[in-house]
Amino acid sequence: MLRRTPEGLRAMLAGLPDGWLTGDEGPDTWTPWQVAGHLTHIEETDWIDRTRVILEHGTSREFEPVDREAGFTRFAGWPIERVLDRFAAVRAENLEVLQELVGDGDLAMRGVHPVFGEVTLSQLLATWVVHDLNHTGQIVKTMAKQYRDAVGPWREFLSIVDQP
Known about the structure:
The chain contains 7 helices and 2 strands, in the order H-H-H-H-H-H-E-E-H. The chain is mainly alpha-helical and 164 residues long. A two-stranded antiparallel ribbon has the order 1-2. A hairpin with a 3-residue loop joins strand 1 and strand 2. The radius of gyration is 18 Å and the shape is elongated. It starts with a helix and ends in a 19-residue tail after the last helix.
């Protein structure tokens, strides 16, 4: 699944006009461009770093907190294609590193999340997959909501446009 996300995001977002990339669902929600920036920043700073902490320090060292919105600033002014290129490159590197670092016997190893407490490496890796799926769904929902009124009477069959 992790290998597929960059291609899926590129298929959905590359080449779209700004209106598609900058629309949101209202206050305190993210645009598709912001989601791509978030995913790219987290890819650079989170998954492999936390994997290494678990493998090298176990529960003796807590994970560093993550700034979920740092990618908004980090990639400000970048066209979506450049953000997606960066995401794809870092993801490919991370999957190579992951393959080198982790064996089946490591999956039960534990680390300490700053909010959740003890977590396993297996849970961290499962979260990485679901994080991708969650944000892909967020992008789809945000884009669908741009057509909330335009779909007219079909809205009753298109529940995505009314999801919170």
